[in-house]
Design a protein that fits this description.
single chain; 189 residues; alpha+beta; NADH Oxidase; four-stranded antiparallel beta sheet; globular; binds flavin mononucleotide
């Protein structure tokens, strides 16, 4: 296999679930967003909106909304997690990036998902941790999240497709099991 800096970043990126409280630098945030801006999109429509949340007050609001949403999930394990006093849907990360797109466009979901993926890789290349946080997406698209979505300035006709936590890592995660290539590929020659 060929190894270079890009491949190294792709292979070593992990989902980070413990963060330091120190905020990432503005230049680092802008670099991460720029990587999202340059990701591919259907017909180059770039139908995304990147909403960055760093305000402690807003982070708390989002966390409480995720907590309430999980408490109603009907999933006992999720409900148990949400009841904990130290619950954080996004592992206390100091930065959230919420990617939304025009739900009337056919490729918005793919565009927004890919953009966050690019941002994860850019973050990893800067030694910044990241993790997909699905609970935020689910909550913001639900009836209960409507007000908060509005408060975040996400247009009504936009749907949230991906949300990620970003920050300096508090721990270095190990790699979870990955399937071998021969289990998941088929090359037709
Ligand atoms: C669509 C999607 C949803 C995910 N949702 C969550 C989540 O809600 N919380 C979380 O901690 N990780 C979430 N993850 C991260 C995965 O658990 C993680 O990518 C997977 O376990 C592989 O680990 P790695 O990213 O370190 O390679 C999600 C990833 C994807 C792609």
């Amino acid at each position: 296999m060929i190894m270079n800096e890009t491949i190294k970043t792709i292979l070593s990126r992990r989902s980070v679930r413990a963060y330091q409280q120190e905020q990432i630098k503005e230049e680092e945030l802008m670099t991460i967003l720029e990587a999202g801006r340059f990701s591919p999109s259907g017909m180059n429509r770039q139908s995304w909106l990147f909403t960055v949340v760093q305000s402690k007050e807003m982070l708390k609001k989002i966390n409480e909304a995720c907590r309430n949403s999980l408490l109603k999930s009907g999933n006992p394990a999720m409900e148990e997690r949400a009841r904990r006093s130290d619950f954080s849907a996004f592992y206390n990360a100091p930065t959230l990036i919420i990617v939304s797109g025009d739900k009337n466009l056919m490729t918005a979901q793919y565009d927004c998902t890919l953009a966050l993926g690019y941002m994860f890789l850019a973050a990893a290349s800067l030694n910044i941790g990241s993790c997909w946080v699905h609970g935020i997406t689910v909550m913001l698209n639900s009836e209960d999240g409507k007000e908060l979505k509005k408060e975040l300035g996400i247009p009504e006709e936009y749907q949230v497709y991906s949300s990620g936590a970003f920050g300096y890592k508090a721990t270095e995660p190990t790699c979870p099991p990955k399937k071998q290539l021969d289990e998941i590929m088929k090359i037709i020659k």
